[in-house]
Amino acid sequence: MSLSLTLVFDKYRRDHDPIIASNRIKFEGDAVSLREALKPVTLPLPTGVEWLTEDVGLKLFKTDPYDDELTFVSAGLLAQRLNEAAQGAWGKAVAEFVQALPPDSRVVLWWH
Question: How far apart, in Å, are the Cα atoms of 77 and each of 10, 57, 60, 109?
Answer without folding.
Answer: 15, 32, 26, 13
